[in-house]
Amino acid sequence: MGIVDKIIRSLIALIVMVLFYFKVISGTLGVVLLVIAGVFLLTSFVSFCPLYKIFGFNTCPATKAE
Questions:
Q1: Which end of the chain has less Cβ packing within 10 Å, N or C?
Q2: pTM passes above 0.85
């Protein structure tokens, strides 16, 4: 997972958490979005997304072999 992907995931999670805290989103939708935000944070911290592996995505820049 690339650094840009990690930043985007963290920002989305932070926005969802703030919206939930200020009750802009609530109820079942709020809880579902909060869980997804938690997954986004977890995957950005561990630098691994299982869905990326399943679908063959890679956002990490290629390393040069020297």
A1: C
A2: no
Compute the residue count for the chain: 66
* Domain extent at residue 25: 3-55
Q: Determine, yes or no, domain membership for 16.
A: yes
Pairwise CA distance, residues 55 & 66, whole Å:
29
Count the domains in the chain. Answer: 1
Strands (DSSP E) contained in the chain are none
CB contact set of 1 (below 8 Å; sequence gap of 6+) = 43, 44, 47, 48, 49, 52, 59, 60
pLDDT digits (tens, 9 = 90+) for 9-53: 999 999 999 999 999 999 999 999 999 999 999 999 988 777 777
